[in-house]
Automatic annotation (TrEMBL):
Key word Signal present: yes
Boundaries of every Glyoxal oxidase N-terminal domain copy: 45-433
Protein known as: Galactose oxidase-like Early set domain-containing protein
Signal peptide from the UniProt entry: 1-20
Keywords (A to Z) from UniProt: Signal
Pfam assignment, any one: Glyoxal_oxid_N
Matches recorded under CDD domains: E_set_GO_C (cd02851)
InterPro entries assigned to the protein according to its UniProt record, in alphabetical order: Gal_Oxase/kelch_b-propeller, Gal_Oxidase_central_sf, Glyoxal_oxidase_N, GO-like_E_set, Ig-like_fold, Ig_E-set
Superkingdom assignment: Eukaryota
Domain Galactose oxidase-like Early set, chain residue ranges per copy: 442-546
């Protein structure tokens, strides 16, 4: 099953300009797949890109041994583990984008269906899990001596158990942790004076016996408040005052979109060039109501085949709906570098849960949200040779590829005599913009400041491009690396910056001055990937620290 990739922001005005420039034709216009590893030893239930171009990947610990040993005879000893009290295999790895190598990491307690976010200093904070890990916090700090970096665990550091919760980085660098199974509340990391705060909305959206409000979709909005979507409903929350400021209309169709119905969602890119920034939420796919019950009885219902968009800051917000080429549940939506959205593969039938998905969809879809609605805004990409079912993940990398790994719809790793065997492979998808034929118009960043400030503070970089067209087709984008699990990329965020000036300094070489984000509500503090995009073709990313 291929997840849904959201790749593009609006560049309809660029198409008309570029069309007259006789761009090279692209024979691989549907993208390309590459197998990176036949097995990395674990299934990628959770993934997070770090600012040293390493990717943290981890599964759960309560199913028995993985297919990757811990180094140097190390074993995990956990008397509370439900399967193996002594386990000498790894359930987490650190993957190196540059070398394509990986090494095992040590997790002590169960991280099943947990959440995470990256602090402003680049430390990954992972929250919760299952069994003896459900109130634990784990951190991973990238370090210069990479061979010795590993997880650090802080037992019982959460006030409430967090299983299927969602996280969002806030303007002050704190992390808000919302919901989870039978948790109708939220808390903060670091913990705040008011502890756990009850939220009626989470109880109201809980379908008895089915839930359909787990892993709620969270987005920090430019006004500093939090958008929360759960089941079919959404609210605007002032988390400092614990006050619901607004409830938005229900999503059309009354079909739930959160786990286990498991649609996917993104905040469309924010553009600092707009006089008024109007945030817009997009929700795609999922399983119709009662699909979980039907799948448990062997009846696998076709997934939802629509996407809905909501402009949350207009006076009378309402959802707009579009049909998508292929229905899917458990898809991953990823913001791409020319502001489009990519929806990656997953099943067409059934719902999330053990053995409850069927009919893998192996073709990603690219959606162009800025194209005129009267045009067909979806493009179907090349198929992956590997079906990706439950418990796989996908993230954007600094070189513009999408990293995809994992698939395990079974309680244990199961490789034989099943319809969809556990898949521990890792592959990458190269969107059409990475074609070598676009080399002449692909920018290459030569140098850039390492830090970027708020308030429109100026930021300098230089870049080269062989066939520079015009400043009208040039943009600078920052992208927050997301924590991906269960069809939701937490903290995924893309911002288009204002260009203050472009100067020709040498043949095919240019200085570029841009204004930093106007405020932390637009781009919370932390590390971002920075890209120069020229005529829809992005450079490789550079890491920049904001705040």
């Amino acid at each position: 099953m291929i997840k849904f990739l959201l790749f593009s922001l609006s560049f309809s005005h660029v198409f008309s300009i570029v069309a007259s420039q006789a761009l090279p034709s692209y024979s691989g216009r549907n993208g390309e797949w590459q197998l990176l590893h036949e097995s990395v030893g674990i299934s990628a239930m959770h993934m997070q890109l770090l600012h040293n171009n390493k990717v943290i990947i981890f599964d759960r610990t309560d199913f028995g041994p993985s297919n990757l040993s811990l180094p140097n005879g190390i074993c995990r000893v956990d008397s509370s583990d439900t399967m193996l009290q002594t386990d000498c295999t790894a359930h987490s790895i650190l993957y190196d984008i540059v070398t394509n190598g990986f090494r095992p990491l040590m997790i002590q307690t169960d991280t099943w269906r947990s959440s995470g976010a990256v602090l402003p200093n680049g430390t990954l904070v992972q929250t919760g899990g299952y069994n003896d890990g459900d109130r634990n916090i784990r951190s991973f700090m990238p370090c210069s001596d990479d061979e010795y970096c590993n997880w650090i665990e802080f037992p019982q550091s959460l006030i409430q158990r967090r299983w299927y919760a969602s996280n969002q980085v806030l303007p002050d660098g704190r992390i808000i942790i919302v919901g989870g199974r039978r948790q109708f509340n939220y808390e903060f990391y670091p913990s705040s004076w008011n502890g756990v705060i009850f939220l009626d909305f989470l109880m109201e959206t809980n379908d008895q016996g089915l839930e359909n409000n787990l892993y709620p979709f969270l987005y920090l909005l430019p006004d500093g408040n939090l958008f929360i979507f759960a089941n079919t409903r959404s609210i605007l929350l002032d988390y400092n005052q614990n006050m619901v400021l607004k409830e938005f209309p229900k999503i059309p169709g009354d079909d739930p979109r959160n786990y286990p119905s498991s649609g996917s969602s993104v905040l469309l890119p924010l553009d600092e060039n707009d006089a008024i920034i109007e945030p817009e939420i997009m929700v795609c796919g999922g399983a119709p109501r009662d699909s979980f019950i039907q799948a448990m009885q062997g009846n696998f219902i076709r997934a939802i085949s629509t996407c809905e968009r909501l402009k949350v800051s207009v006076p009378n917000p309402s959802w707009t709906m579009e049909d998508i080429p292929m229905a899917r549940v458990m898809g991953d939506m990823i913001l791409l570098l020319f502001h489009n959205v990519n929806n990656f593969c997953r099943p067409e039938l059934g719902t999330a849960g053990w053995e409850l998905g069927r009919g893998p969809v192996t073709r990603p879809i690219i959606y162009r949200p800025s194209d005129d609605v009267s045009n067909w805004r979806f493009s179907v990409m090349s198929p992956s040779p590997r079906p990706r079912m439950h418990h796989s993940s996908a993230i954007l990398l600094t070189d513009g590829r999408i990293l995809v790994s994992g698939s395990n719809p079974h309680v244990y790793y199961n490789f034989t005599n099943v319809e969809y065997p556990t898949d521990l492979s890792m592959e990458s998808f190269s969107p059409p913009y990475l074609s070598p034929e676009y080399g002449p118009i692909r920018p290459r960043i030569l140098s850039a400041d390492e830090k970027m400030g708020y308030g429109g503070k100026l930021f300098w970089l230089s870049f080269q491009v062989q066939a520079y067209l015009t400043a009208n087709v040039l943009s600078v984008t920052i992208v927050a690396p997301s924590f991906a699990t269960h069809s939701f990329s937490m903290n995924q965020r893309m911002v288009l910056l204002k260009i203050a000036g472009v100067t020709d300094i040498a043949p095919s070489t240019y200085n570029l001055v841009v204004a930093g984000p106007s405020r932390a509500e637009i781009a919370p503090p932390g590390y971002y990937m920075l890209f120069v995009v020229h005529a829809h073709v992005p450079s490789y990313g550079r890491w920049v620290k904001i705040g």
